[in-house]
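Blinded run. Sample ID left blank on purpose so nobody reads anything into the name before looking at the predicted structure. Input follows.
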Amino acid sequence: MAFLETKLSLRVQQKQVLTPGLVQMVSLLTLNKLELTEMIQQELVQNPVLEEGTEIVESPQELSEAEAKLDASEPAPTEAAEVDDADRQYAEVSDREVTVEHTVDTVPVEAEAPDDPYADLDLQSFDNYLNDGASRPRETEVFEKPSFENFLAKAQTLTDHLEWQLGLATVDEAVRNACHSIIGNLNEDGYLLAVDENGREAPITLEEIAESGEHQLDDVVKALEVVQRFDPPGVAARELRECLMIQLIVLEEDDTIPFEVVRDHLHKVQNKQFKEIAKAISQSLEIVMDAVEIIKALDPRPGQKYNRTQPRLIEPDVFIVKSSGEYGVVTNEDEVPQLRLSPTYRHMLERDSINKDVKNYVKDCFKSAVQLLKNIEQRKHIIVKVCEAIIRRQTDFLDRGIDQLKPMMIKDVAEEVGVHPSTVSRAVANKFAHTPQGVFELRYFFSEAVNGPMGDGTSLLIVKRKVKKYIETEDPRSPLTDEKLALMLKDEGICVTRRSITKYREDLKIPSTHQRRVRS
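Blinded prediction complete.
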């Protein structure tokens, strides 16, 4: 029988530990220009040793020397060197007094002006009264104006818009509470859907809303009718058919052929089976096509107009410019704060009279500041090296356009630069380059290769562009099949399978051949 007992065991193992400086370097490498600027602003607030200015730029050699001084061991304190706290404070006060006396002695004393009979009159106020603001010199306007962003109103969401309409509606209190529950269960498209445990949207019944919100079922039914009458038309629908029918009712098209087509033959509209629809409703094909045009004008996602995402602000991190026939990389450092080490705190470390705790705190701040400056410089160096490797491989793209884009893998660039592939992946993440062909994300230049002409690799992006171009120029009555697309690419020397074409088409969100066919 085994007994529990305490033992001591030794084990030798190797493990990689990330130092704080390396962790900071990894995090800095993933930041784009805007994020880096925000991060530097935070460091300027937290670290008093850092200053913003362009007068003194710390070079890598100076940073290494400063770090070496910080790491140097301090001499052991002796009894004679130790200063009592009271004596230290007295010495600092004496130093300040000497400085003040010296300043007073060195400043020349201005001669006293003779008595002016008009000295008591405020002539400046009369001048300001007679002159308007346009005639005043601009040098006097030194106040900081508020940012224009402070005057921008917050965008109204779909929930805000519906709640505002609910506040104007005349309904019972129980129905109003049920309306709040319905509005709270709408997704971004305006549909009445719930989110399951896996984070996926699923239909929700009125019984579930009544049970979860402790409402009466009749109140929930009335609340749904109230919300569905709100703007935008089609909101609070449970499916596409109901959404389109609500919009047709608002347009007073509830007793027309478009309403009948949506109610009974919407799936045939999706498959473009217009002849079958005309035969089912005993109408001509022209009338059915007119009804389809009306249906196309409806909004299948009525809530999106109030839930539009804000446009992403893009600012290039690097400029790829051509000079003397060769391309080069220029980093974009506009509006990025230029950091330097504070000379005031440098002199403070050289003084022996400051408190030991204060000195240790300043020393830690110096170490953190030096490490940050080195990591920023290292980040810039890696990004430039990666961009130079991209230029060497994508010169044809920079000269002639996107059709000349060549396949390129992250691991190949990492081997050329001499870093780990994960470093290159972080260096190109969320960063953009301004090129002669436009602004592109750095990740855009990396793509897989497929078998191309003469055995050379062709970029996967080029293959997808060709597939999309073929489909855009096809005959709608006889669309190209995936197999036919594969044969057309093979004629150009690009060997891909039919299954690959299907995958590319799905990535481009292009419908299948059956869905693209227009039946006359």
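Unblinding after everyone has recorded impressions. The two ends are 85 Å apart (CA to CA).
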